[in-house]
């Protein structure tokens, strides 16, 4: 019987050794495959051609043998040890390199150093990730023979853009800081100590220019340097009442005692008039600049300033008029007066606050407030007449929890409060008519121009027709041409006016659909909201709700996520 065995050769590969013996049971290729599979060499690469050649030669030898005669030994290398191979792939931008290992078949595995060297041979010289090199080597050693394992082994570093020049404010501005209760050393809050009113002195640093940086260089995995973009530069803006410090031209300092205000890329300092209280002892105040009142403004007193007015205490049935903002530390209190009516034109409140900018106070009752921008009342707004071009916010800066009770509000964009109205059913009127009227006035003015142009075009059309009907001997071609040209001009103007009107009507519609009233906790009975000609009045208590205009009606809708 022919015998077959697997024997290591000098190359550490495996030979198939056949000893021919003629018998009734010949050996086939399948027998050799079974032998290999059951051996310890099954992971090596099989050279099938050599198996085929060995069996063919065996059969030739067997033909010349007698029964049970043994022939010469046949030896073929059929199993080869294959070392792990590697392929390095580099992204088109040279910012990443990966390695794909084909696992060894009984041969040598690739070490982390071997992977590193292979990558270097392909031009990868920077950004190697040591952990990935080790992990890939380990994964390759564990992988099934001839399977592939891939990992990213190197990454380039993008260039980092430089930081832009920054203007750092060194003091809080009058616009951004509203005085707050101060913390005690034990962590509690002193509700009576509300901090100092901001006022700078001559030489005080206001703002600092922090120059731009050049950025940080990057590199590709092939070692090419990537140049960064430098940051954007800007100069510090020297506002009124300020100058660059002689010691450091990147620092802005004050040249006078006054109120600091942020401007684009800098600060200004406005003149300030400072007084403890405004009462019969101080008299009325009228000042070109900012006014700081550390205490109260007493009943019947007036404060008029071209800049901001800051009050550290209360305003009691007094008049404040500011060309900038009005900030009232505590509250505004007027004499009790009935304002639960839809028409407040003839009502005069004892406390009147007007600002071309914003108004901010802790609470307000029986007051008339007029603002060119926004109004913020932190706790409670009661029985007041409010007119503003911006947003009314009744609540804390970070929590909408204030109470808006009764009164008349003519808002510009939106009204926000924790609760609106009162459980007793006090009337609260909210309207957005001021802006609506402006749109309608512009539309009416356009309509007047349209009617005027229609009249002119009709007259010119009639004149042109009459000129065309004249007998030839009386025809005036020059006059006809002039009339036609004038007609075309007015017809074009008429078309432009129709387009203007359409744009204004669209703008009006968009405005009406953008305004709203928000009650984050409650909207009580008696809250009436008017948007143009459309009105809705609450007839019961609602939970968190929003009131807005849509499809020719005013709707009260619940706020699902408040």
TrEMBL record:
InterPro entries, per this entry?
FapA (IPR005646), FapA_b_solenoid (IPR046865), FapA_N (IPR046866), MinC_C_sf (IPR036145)
Pfam families listed in its UniProt record:
FapA, FapA_N
Boundaries of every Flagellar Assembly Protein A N-terminal region domain copy: 86-265
PANTHER family per record: POLYMERASE-RELATED (PTHR38032), RNA-BINDING PROTEIN KHPB N-TERMINAL DOMAIN-CONTAINING PROTEIN (PTHR38032:SF1)
Could you identify this protein by its name? Flagellar Assembly Protein A N-terminal region domain-containing protein
The species is: Thalassotalea eurytherma
């Amino acid at each position: 019987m022919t015998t077959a065995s697997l024997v290591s050769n000098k190359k550490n590969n495996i030979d198939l050794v056949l000893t021919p013996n003629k018998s009734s049971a010949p050996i086939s290729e399948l027998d050799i495959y079974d032998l290999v599979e059951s051996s310890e060499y099954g992971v090596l690469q099989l050279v099938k051609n050599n198996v085929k050649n060995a069996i063919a030669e065996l059969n030739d030898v067997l033909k010349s043998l007698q029964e049970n005669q043994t022939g010469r030994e046949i030896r073929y290398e059929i199993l080869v040890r294959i070392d792990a191979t590697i392929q390095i792939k580099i992204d088109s931008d040279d910012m990443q390199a990966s390695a794909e290992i084909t696992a060894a078949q009984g041969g040598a595995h690739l070490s982390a150093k071997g992977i590193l060297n292979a990558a270097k041979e392909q031009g990868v010289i920077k950004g190697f990730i040591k952990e990935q090199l080790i992990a890939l080597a380990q994964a390759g050693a564990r992988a099934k023979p001839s399977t592939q394992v891939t990992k990213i082994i190197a990454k380039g570093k993008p260039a980092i853009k430089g930081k832009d020049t920054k203007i750092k404010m060194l003091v809080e501005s009058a616009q951004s800081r509203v005085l707050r209760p101060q913390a005690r050393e034990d962590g509690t809050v002193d509700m009576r100590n509300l901090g100092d009113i901001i006022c700078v002195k001559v030489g005080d640093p206001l703002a600092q220019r922090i120059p731009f940086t050049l950025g940080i260089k990057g590199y590709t995995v092939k070692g090419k340097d990537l140049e960064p973009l430098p940051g954007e530069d800007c100069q510090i803006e020297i506002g009124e009442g300020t100058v660059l410090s002689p010691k450091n031209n990147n620092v802005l300092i004050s040249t006078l005692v006054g109120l600091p205000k942020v401007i684009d890329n800098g600060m200004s300092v406005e003149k300030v008039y400072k007084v403890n209280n405004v009462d019969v002892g101080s008299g009325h105040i009228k000042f070109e600049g900012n006014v700081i009142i550390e205490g109260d403004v007493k009943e019947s007193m007036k404060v008029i300033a071209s800049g901001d007015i800051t009050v550290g205490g209360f305003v009691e049935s007094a008049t404040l008029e500011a060309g900038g903002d009005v900030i009232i530390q505590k509250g505004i209190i007027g004499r009790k007066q009935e304002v639960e009516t839809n028409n407040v034109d003839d009502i005069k409140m004892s406390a009147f606050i007007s600002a071309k900018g914003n108004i901010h106070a802790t609470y307000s009752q029986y007051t008339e407030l007029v603002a060119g921008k926004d109004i913020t009342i932190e706790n409670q707004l009661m029985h007041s007449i409010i007119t503003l071009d911006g947003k009314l916010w009744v609540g804390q800066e970070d929590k909408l929890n204030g109470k808006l009770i009764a009164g008349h509000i003519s808002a510009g964009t939106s009204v926000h409060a924790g609760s609106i109205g009162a459980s007793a059913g006090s009337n609260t009127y909210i309207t957005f008519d001021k802006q609506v009227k402006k749109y309608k006035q512009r539309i009416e003015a356009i309509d007047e121009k349209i009617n005027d142009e229609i009249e002119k075009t009709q007259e010119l059309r009639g004149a042109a027709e009459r000129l065309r009907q004249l007998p030839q001997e009386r025809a005036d071609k020059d006059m006809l041409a002039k009339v036609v040209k004038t007609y075309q001009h007015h017809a074009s103007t008429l078309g432009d006016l129709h387009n203007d009107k359409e744009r204004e009507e669209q703008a009006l519609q968009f405005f009406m659909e953008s305004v709203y009233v928000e009650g984050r906790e409650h909207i009580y009975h008696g809250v009436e909201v008017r948007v143009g000609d459309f009105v809705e009045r609450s007839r019961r208590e609602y939970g968190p709700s929003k009131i807005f205009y849509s499809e020719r009606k005013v709707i009260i809708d619940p706020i699902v996520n408040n």
